[in-house]
Design brief:
Two copies of one chain form a homodimer. Chain A is mainly beta. Chain A is built from two helices and eight strands; from the N terminus they run αββαββββββ. Chain A starts with a helix and ends with a strand.
Chain lengths: 119, 119
């Protein structure tokens, strides 16, 4: 990490060995964490340009626009980057449930000392 | 990903090749994304047990309790896990600024079409 990466106003992402950043999506309405995904340089550029969330699928090894099949697009309200430029925060307005299970958020279970429970 | 991992109530994290999960920390007060870190199995167990956020530092290759040097501990209000159990969401009450730069959040810059700007 360079000082400029941390304090400067130049976009200079620190991609991991696979060329990816972590992308965290929260709901503008109430800050609920909707999902965590990954973006390569092109997914980030297309997200910035289209103001809709575009990710890189590690399993399918290709770009995908969230909602391209479900219709549940994530409209981008704000995009932030963290101190060492390896994580992106997108504040979004979702068109519908974000999780492929149909849940509003992928984080529908609570971790307790004895296991998981519905949140 | 197995069906049980997605729908069951058994904690069965899908660690990456380095044995890590992505951990997203938001502020209980208003949903602000404070930081993104990583947890191995022990960091997760200690976070659940102590109700304070414990991470695994990839650069230092050891566990660290957030705030161990700065005093800015993250007190855990809720812990969630996502559908495929490879990401953790911690809703926390921070004792002070979370970013090592002194900023409240690590996400203090906005990404625009022309670069970054203070958020």
């Amino acid at each position: 990490m360079t000082d400029d990466q941390e304090t400067g106003l130049t976009l200079n992402p620190k991609f991991d060995a696979s060329g990816l950043l972590t992308a965290v999506i929260t709901d503008e309405a109430d800050g609920t964490l909707l999902m965590v995904g990954h973006m390569n340089a092109e997914a980030l550029a297309r997200s910035v340009e289209t103001r809709t969330a575009v990710f890189y699928s590690r399993s399918r090894q290709k770009l995908w626009q969230k909602g391209e099949s479900s219709g549940n697009v994530l409209h981008i309200v704000d995009i932030r980057i963290d101190c060492d430029q390896d994580a992106i925060w997108i504040i979004a307005r979702p068109d519908g449930p974000t999780c492929h299970t149909g849940a509003r958020s992928c984080f529908y279970r609570r971790v307790t000392e004895t296991g998981l429970e519905p949140a």
